Amino acid sequence: xxxxxxxxxxxxxxxxxxxxxxxxxxxxxxxxxxxxxxxxxxxxxxxxxxxxxxxxxxxxxxxxxxxxxxxxxxxxxxxxxxxxxxxxxxxxxxxxxxxxxxxxxxxxxxxxxxxxxxxxxxxxxxxxxxxxxxxxxxxxxxxxxxxxxxxxxxxxxxxxxxxxxxxxxxx
Length: 171
What we know:
The protein is mainly alpha-helical.
């Protein structure tokens, strides 16, 4: 059983997951506002970086400036746009699914190393699942359902798994 702090986080994740499922459009709208705001802040930081690096490297400074402007425009476009956020999430799920499938297929051709045939099969299956989820994520209602289910599952796992124990296992 996990520590008290993890149980509290698990309960909060389950409650948040249920709220996301109950209020799907408001939840996706809120997520798009937060994502847009974060990208706008990233763009502002990149523009500030461009002024700071001007004396050291003109090319890097111009690159920071261009990236910053693109991030600010993209963040403004994403800010509060449910459809843009749904499209972006769906795109990234397709993107991740494609790479999972490709890496799974590639692992079948590896003769040495730690990747096995089972891992390749799992990568292909997960890639296909990502593609299926991406086809549903276009719809904001389904996107909210996917996010809510993920939060509930994550909250339940926090009851049983202590994230710090997972970090110890990796080291």
